[in-house]
Amino acid sequence: MANKAKKVIDYQINYQVLTSQYFAEVIQLANKVHGDGYLNNETLISWVNTGITDNINTSFVALHNRKVVGFRITFSADNWHIDQWCSPEKWQVPKQQCCYFKCNTVDDDFRGLGIGKKLLNLAITSAQQQGAVAGVSHLWKQSPNNSAVAYFTHCGGEHVASHPDKWHEDSKQGYDCVLCGYNCHCEAAEMIIYFD
Question: Distance between CA atoms of 72 and 15, rounded to whole angstroms?
Fold first, then answer.
């Protein structure tokens, strides 16, 4: 797509807080991009609620002609479970002040337009209003050309650790990885963005 066409589309993107009116489209896009079983209504409700503190929502959607073409789900600092895939001793900030960037998804036809970065910046602004000073995420290293890690690095992300088989248990519970099927062995790059 030519740069001029990209700019025209970019100006037509509308960003909104992620609320229940967008759930069906978000689930459809998530399962299309990440694989069947990645997201369902119950999980989405839980994820979005985990990102709301003091009536501030850290999750957003990108709309083109009122259709969801991207979304970002973020968990509020001190409101998410730090599991074995996290390395808080390497974060250099108190773990209670780190939000978690759970998921960033953009429709194939709308990639390269800055939508992911805009969604991230909206999430960062909201997380800062909640008191976060940094945000942690796990990036899919097997994304085409490792684009997930490249995107997050371009946005200021720093590598913390690598975690093989990060989504293996999820795949055994019904997540159909687009690369591995129900036996996912994809690797995650744990990364952090400092908000100063």
Answer: 11
Let me know how many helices (H) and strands (E) the chain has, helices first. 6, 9
Residues whose CB is less than 8 angstroms from the CB of residue 89 and which lie 6 or more positions away in sequence, other chains included = none
Residue 118's CB is within 10 A of a number of other CB atoms, namely: 17
pLDDT in tens, 45-70: 999 999 999 999 999 999 999 999 99
What does the alpha-carbon distance between residue 18 and residue 56 come to, in Å, rounded to a whole number? 11
Nearest to 188, CA basis, from 157, 174, 172: 157
Name the pTM for this structure.
0.86
- Buried residues in 134-173 as b, exposed as e (16+ CB within 10 A): bbbbbbbbebeeeebbebbbebebeebeebeebbbebbee
Distance CA 129, CA 88 (A): 22
C-beta neighbour count of 120 within 10 angstroms: 23
The C-alpha angle 94, 186, 132, rounded to 5 degrees, equals 20
